[in-house]
C-alpha cells in the first residue's frame, strides 16, 4: 500500500500524516512501518482518517510501545469526535493524548 | 421487513464492502451520523471476527451478513462456517501498561461491539457461529 504515511519533520518533531482513510487490518502493516523512524516528539495526524477499528488500534499501539521504549512522546492530532470517543473507551488517549496543530508552532 | 444480504469471501479486504453497506443502510434507516459510525465499527469487528476466528481466513468459506430492518430496529446477523466458539468475551477491555509491555495489543473487538450496539447475542455450533447485533430506533 502506497502513501499510507506522509512524513513531515522539523527539529525533534515528526508529524506522520496518515494517508489511508481506513486504519484497519488491511492498512495496518503499511502504517506500522512508520514506527521504525519515530522522533522524540511524534505526532500522528488523523485528518484524513474516516475509520478506525480494533485492528487499526492494535497497529497504533505499536507506536505507543515504540515511543515508551525510546522515551519519546506520542500525540494524536485532528482526531474526529467519534474516534476520540473510541480512544476514550479503550483508554488509548492515556497513552496517546491529543494535541492541537497550533501547539506544534513552537517547534517549527 | 426489509432485508439486505451481503456475502463475502473470508478475506479482510472484503470487510470494507460490508462496512460500506452498513453505512448506507444505517443512513437509510435514519440513524444519526454518530450512530452510523457506531454501526459501521460494530459490524466491522463482527465481520473481522468471522473472517479471522471463525473461517480462519479460508477464502472458500463465506461470511454471510444479513441486515434486517423493521420500524423499531436494525438487526445485523453475521454468520461464519468455522468450528464454533466456546464463549465470546464482551467484557470491558482497555489498553493497559502490563499488556503493552507483554506485546498484547489486540482483543478490543468484542468489547467495542457490545458497547456500541443496543444488544447482541451469539449462537455457536460445530458448523459455525452467528452473531446478531441489534440497534433500536430511538426517540
Structural description of this entry:
- The complex is a heterodimer of chains A (108) and B (139).
- In chain A, 29% of the residues lie in helices and 24% in strands.
- Chain A has 108 residues and is an alpha/beta fold.
- Chain A has one domain: Transcription Regulator spoIIAA (2-Layer Sandwich).
- In chain A, the strands form two sheets. Chain A has a four-stranded mixed β-sheet with strand order 1-2-4-6, covered by helices on one side.
- The longest helix of chain A has 17 residues, at 54-70.
- The mean pLDDT of chain A is 94.
- Chain B has 139 residues and is α+β, with helices and mostly antiparallel strands.
- Chain B is 36% helix and 28% strand.
- In chain B, α1 runs antiparallel to α2 (33-54).
- The mean pLDDT of chain B is 95.
- Chain A binds chain B through residues 22, 24-26, 51, 53-55, 57-58, 61-62, 64-65, 68, 81-82, 86, 89-92, 94-95, and chain B through 12-13, 15-16, 19, 34, 37-38, 40-41, 44-45, 48, 93-96, 100, 103, 105-109, 111-112, 115.
Short description, anyone?
With 108 residues, chain A is of the alpha/beta class. Chain A has three helices and six strands; from the N terminus they run βββαββαβα. Chain A has a four-stranded mixed sheet, covered by helices on one side. In chain A, strands 3-5 form a two-stranded parallel ribbon.
Amino acid at each position: 500500500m502506497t502513501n499510507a504515511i506522509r512524513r513531515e519533520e522539523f527539529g525533534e518533531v515528526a508529524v506522520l500524516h496518515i494517508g489511508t482513510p481506513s486504519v484497519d487490518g488491511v492498512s495496518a502493516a503499511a502504517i506500522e512501518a512508520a514506527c521504525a523512524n519515530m522522533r522524540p516528539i511524534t505526532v500522528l495526524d488523523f485528518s484524513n482518517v474516516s475509520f478506525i477499528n480494533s485492528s487499526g488500534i492494535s497497529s497504533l499501539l505499536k507506536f505507543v510501545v515504540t515511543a515508551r521504549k525510546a522515551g519519546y512522546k506520542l500525540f494524536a492530532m485532528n482526531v474526529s469526535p467519534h474516534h476520540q470517543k473510541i480512544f476514550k473507551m479503550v483508554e488509548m488517549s492515556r497513552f496517546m493524548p491529543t494535541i492541537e496543530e497550533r501547539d506544534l508552532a513552537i517547534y517549527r | 421487513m426489509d432485508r439486505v444480504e451481503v456475502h463475502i469471501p473470508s478475506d479482510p479486504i472484503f470487510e470494507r464492502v460490508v462496512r460500506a453497506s452498513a453505512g448506507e443502510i444505517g443512513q437509510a434507516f435514519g440513524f444519526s451520523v454518530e450512530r452510523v459510525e457506531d454501526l459501521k465499527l460494530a459490524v466491522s469487528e463482527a465481520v473481522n471476527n468471522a473472517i479471522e476466528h471463525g473461517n480462519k481466513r479460508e477464502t472458500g468459506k463465506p461470511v454471510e451478513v444479513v441486515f434486517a430492518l423493521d420500524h423499531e430496529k436494525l438487526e445485523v446477523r453475521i454468520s461464519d462456517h468455522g468450528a464454533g466458539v466456546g464463549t465470546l468475551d464482551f467484557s470491558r477491555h482497555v489498553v493497559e501498561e502490563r499488556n503493552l509491555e507483554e506485546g498484547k495489543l489486540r482483543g478490543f473487538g468484542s468489547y467495542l461491539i457490545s458497547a456500541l450496539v443496543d444488544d447482541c447475542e451469539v449462537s455457536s455450533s460445530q458448523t459455525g457461529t452467528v452473531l446478531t447485533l441489534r440497534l433500536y430506533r430511538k426517540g
